[in-house]
Amino acid sequence: MHRIGLAVAMACVLCACSSVDPKETAVSSARTAKCDTSNLDWAKGQPANEENARRLVRESGLGLWRIIGPDNVERADYRPDRLTIYTDKNNVIQSLDCH
Length: 99
Prior knowledge:
alpha+beta
């Protein structure tokens, strides 16, 4: 019984000691994600509702997304693995970009 407990404790210590750079993880995931907005022109002029947003995310090949309206403050964090949906004051999609 002591051996199992010791093995679990050692595994926890080794995991805690391993260093994973969050920047390196973000960069590697950004390299594997491929954002493509070339086939998403159908969305321009459409409402930014849940149905259209889900379809855009699915067709872009990304899991991350955000909607930016004219009164929103856009953070300057660059994420090539994120779809950004820009809307006007009436919540109508104006443009799409990967960042």
